[in-house]
Design goal:
The complex is a heterodimer of chains A (about 300) and B (about 230).
Chain A lengths: L1 H7 L6 H23 L3 H25 L9 H28 L4 H21 L2 H12 L7 H20 L1 H9 L1 H6 L4 H23 L1 H16 L5 H26 L3 H27 L7
Chain B lengths: L1 E7 L2 E7 L8 E6 L5 H9 L6 E3 L8 E4 L13 H6 L14 H13 L15 H14 L4 E5 L7 H18 L2 E5 L3 H7 L2 E6 L2 E6 H4 L2 H8 L4
Helix pairs in contact in B: 3-4
Classes of the chains: A mainly alpha (about 300), B alpha/beta (about 230).
């Protein structure tokens, strides 16, 4: 309990990191709901990795162009990383979604290749970059790094924007995702709503990767959603509960990692995995007990 | 439809379609699997673009579309009511909350299709017939001029099929709705439809049920002897 009191203290050194990962934990599942329901789970794996390659490329640019960066951890470095992450995420999701929609080739193969090449490339690039060695590489491995007040405010503002767009336009986003044909007959601009959906996903992934790294981002995008889907009875319950599971797991993961001196990212993801396993077993037992019909998915 | 060609990615499946569907008529679209029935329907609805030709409407009709329930992903944790509610989305501007009156109207539509009893259950757990009733309620919630049904009785048992078609016939008569029904079921077409569009080996036959669905005419179409 002493460690919990320490984490909750306003003087805690990694205070902003806790706030940021809890924010990411709450918001990522809200976007992940659409990744899962649109059956784009593999995209949820590949995107954070591509986004982290964007960070690596952006941080390598000054070196390639011979521009001197003043100091590690500066706002300009973070801004550069943010631009790299966002640009790569958005380009990747638009290209992958376009190819997905055309329905040609092997989507899993494309996404798998994108994932593995992006992962290798980001490690390669950052290992040859002094900024990378001094913190970014840790982030990409799932270590939580110190976050400034400015970065916390920026992350919170960006994630609240995502939350607002999801909340205000949930009808349109759900309609276009669930029944595109109906959306067309109701004269909705399906291309526009698809684009908004993909931009939201790309933007959230880039913010999450910059804050907590690709491993935790992927974990929070998908595992809370897959967990809650087992028992959710409607969309409202589904999205709100997934968000709560993500936020609470994020805080608990941080606490456990701090208490037992573990890396936060892997701890968060393993905790989410345990929650998923427990709910899955519990759901199975309830179904056997109540003899509920199995859904065909 | 004037000299319309329909198909995918610029390749015509059917061409030279020139026909018109009268307001308040009940038209059945018949044809074997792969004959282009669903493609024709999707082109009419604007889901697919015509390869060439012209498609004209009198005014801007509202389509109430009833897809095959298997086309809807069961991964979504939506109740029957949630699915039916989507029918009113066309009248509500993006970002606006759903007015109470629209929700009540959807409830009315569910009552009209006798789907209100199971509308709070998960859509994925409903039977084929129950799903179709919810989807018809959704189509009615759009306040349609034209009700378009894509094989609504596929995977539905005989009793439910009979009840569904009786219901569609009744709303056709009561509300003077234009009905476009894609089906394989000839006895149902004979009983309920007025007009028939028959797609057969790249040809399109259009006429009344009495003209087209006689044994002699069908033998001629299929080149068989009776």
């Amino acid at each position: 309990m002493e460690s919990l009191r320490e984490i909750l203290s306003p003087d805690f050194l990694l205070r902003n990191s806790v706030y940021t990962s809890v924010l990411v934990g709450f918001i990522c599942p809200l976007v992940g709901v659409y990744l899962v329901l649109r059956r784009l789970v593999f995209m949820g794996v590949a995107l954070p990795q591509v986004s982290s390659t964007g960070v690596a490329v952006a941080l390598s640019l000054p070196l390639w162009l011979g521009i001197k960066m003043t100091e590690h951890g500066s706002h300009s470095e973070h801004l550069l990383a943010f631009v790299g992450s966002t640009v790569f995420s958005l380009i990747a999701i638009l290209v992958l979604a376009f190819m997905e929609r055309r329905g040609r080739g092997l989507p899993e193969g494309r996404l798998g290749t994108a994932y593995v090449v992006a992962a290798a490339l980001s490690i390669l690039l950052l290992s040859k970059n002094r900024f990378g060695e001094a913190g970014w590489l840790d982030l990409l491995k799932g270590e939580v790094i110190t976050i400034s007040n400015f970065d916390l405010a920026l992350t919170a503002a960006a994630l609240l924007l995502v939350l607002a767009v999801l909340g205000i336009f949930h009808k349109e986003l759900l309609l276009v995702s669930f029944d595109r044909a109906l959306a067309v007959t109701l004269r909705k601009n399906v291309v526009l709503w698809d684009a908004i959906m993909y931009l939201l996903i790309g933007f959230t992934v880039s913010i999450a990767v910059l804050s907590v790294g690709p491993l935790i981002s992927f974990g929070f995008l998908l595992i809370p959603v897959l967990t809650v889907r087992l028992f959710a009875r409607n969309m409202r319950q589904f999205t709100i509960t997934a968000s709560i599971v993500g936020g609470v797991a994020s805080f608990l993961g941080f606490w456990i990692a701090y208490e037992w001196d573990l890396p936060v990212g892997p701890t968060d993801v393993v905790l989410l995995g345990i929650i998923f396993a427990v709910v899955w077993i519990g759901h199975g037992l309830v179904r056997v007990f109540k003899k509920q019909p199995r859904e065909i998915t | 439809m004037s000299n319309l060609a329909i198909g995918y990615e610029g390749h015509a499946v059917l061409s030279g379609i020139s026909l018109s569907v009268a307001r308040s008529s009940f038209t059945a679209i018949l044809g074997a699997n792969g004959s282009g029935k669903s493609t024709l329907l999707k082109t009419l609805l604007g889901i697919q673009r015509p390869v060439s030709g012209e498609l004209r409407f009198l005014g801007q009709p509202v389509f109430g579309y009833v897809p095959q329930s298997v086309e809807l992903d069961t991964l979504y944790p939506l109740t029957g009511f949630d699915v039916a509610l989507m029918g009113v989305y066309g009248r509500i501007r993006a970002g606006r909350l759903l007015p109470r009156g629209e929700q009540d109207f959807v409830q009315e539509c569910l009552r009209a299709t006798a789907a209100d009893g199971f509308a709070r259950k998960k859509f994925s757990q409903l039977s084929g017939g129950q799903k179709q009733r919810v989807l018809i309620a959704r189509a009615l919630a759009t306040k349609p001029d034209v009700l378009v049904l894509d094989e609504p009785t596929a995977g539905v048992d005989a009793a439910a099929t009979h009840a569904l078609l009786e219901f569609i016939s009744r709303i056709h008569q009561e509300r003077r709705l234009t009905i476009l029904l894609v089906t394989h079921d000839l006895p149902l077409v004979r009983k309920h439809a007025e007009q028939v569009i028959w797609l057969h080996e790249g040809k399109i036959l259009h006429g009344t049920v009495r003209e087209l669905l006689t044994p002699e005419r069908m033998a001629e179409i299929f080149e068989i002897e009776i």
